[in-house]
Each structure stands twice: as structure tokens, then as C-alpha cells.
Write a structure and sequence with these properties.
252 residues; twelve-stranded antiparallel β-barrel
Amino acid sequence: MSQPRLRAMLIVLGCLAGLPGTAQVNIEALRSPQDSAGWHHQLGLQAGLREGSVERRELGLSARTQQTSGRRRWLSIVDLEAGWQDDDRYSNQGLLHLRVSQQLTGDLAVEGFAQFDHARQRRLLARALAGAGLRWKWVPRLFVGLGVMAETERNDLPPAATHAEHTRHLRGTGYLASHQQIGRGSLAFTAYVQPRIGTLGDRRILAEGTLAVPLSNFVGLKLNLRLRHDSRPVDGIDELDLRFATGLNIDL
């Protein structure tokens, strides 16, 4: 690793203790806007510390690898988060996402994807899904995606819960995504809708905005606002979740 990159990483590690954050995952926001062929890697680090009547510590790590060759693009994302409150772990989540995209025309691509994740704070012990769909460039830097996915979930439920412990569903998935340059920085916005096929009252909605500001050639600051709504959450979990997070990214 070059000296400038090593110095940048040391600066990041030295600053992390002052950054509150919660791991957030938005597949569209983690796509590299670069269309050039080759490999692109990015490492994300987040940490938070709160002292006083309640002690809370949070750690997050994410890694993205994207490879573009001709009209095909591969994307892999790993995201991990853990949180402790008064020495008791209240948050433990992880995600692995794999996606391949094949450009059919200048504006239309077909995609296939698979994902494995868990989230203790949502009582989700394990989820696996696979799907495929189309991605269309409506206008420059504005994309529309439509597809279908099969998912299976295993939940950790409280006594007398009404939600099923194991579920298997077929869902539609649609999104509107935009990535805009703002000076030296960028703003990414994505809105997802994922209704259960045959039961439209069972739907998930995710809206997320991410502002990225470069601090150097290799290090950037990210501010993230996320809204998540699940019309049929498991027992004990709210339908609406709103989170704000900050973190640093390192381009390798």
C-alpha cells in the first residue's frame, strides 16, 4: 500500500472514536458510479460511543467490490454491525449481497441477485433471498428497477407471538434511484417498494439518502438518512424505523 493511502487509513482510524453511527445498507448507494472497466474497492468504517447514565458502543464495517468487464458488472457487498448498551449486546446484524448485471442496450440491463442476512434488533435470525429483474436508465443518472424475488426468513419470536416463526414468500421489488454530483461530493437517493405477491397489504418500503463528501483522494465522509416501513413486522417490532448515520469510506 502506498504511503499516502497508509497515512489516510491511519487518520481514519484515529478519528473513528468521535463518529456516532449505525450500519446502513443501501445496495443502490453502494454501486460505484464509475463505468470504467476494471476493479473498484471500498471499505467503510463506523464507530460510536455514548457515556453517561447509559453507556452505548457501536461498531460497523462494510466492504464493497465491483468488477466491470465489457457489458457485464459484478458487485459484492459485506456489511457487519454490532452494538452494546451497558455491556449487553442489543444489536448484531450482518449481510452478504451478490449481484450481476448484464447490459442489453445503452439504457436497459438485466440483473440477478442473492442475499443472506440477519438482524438481531429486528428479531431476524436468518434470511435468504434470490431474484432477478430489469434496470432501466430513465434519464441520465436516474434509474428504475423492477423484478421479483423469493425469500425465506427465520425469526426469534416472543411467547404468544402471532407472527410465523418461519416464512417463505414471493415478493415483487421495484426501486427508483438517482446519483447526482454536487461539487466534489455526491448525493444518492433510493426508494424501494417490495410487496408480497398475492397479498399486497404485506409490503416493505425503504427510502434512503446518502451525501458523500471527499476528505482526500482516498477518504470520504458519508451522511445517511434512512426510513424503513414494514406493514407486517414481527411481534414487538415497530412498523416504522428512522435512522441517521455518519461514517467514513476508504477507496482502495
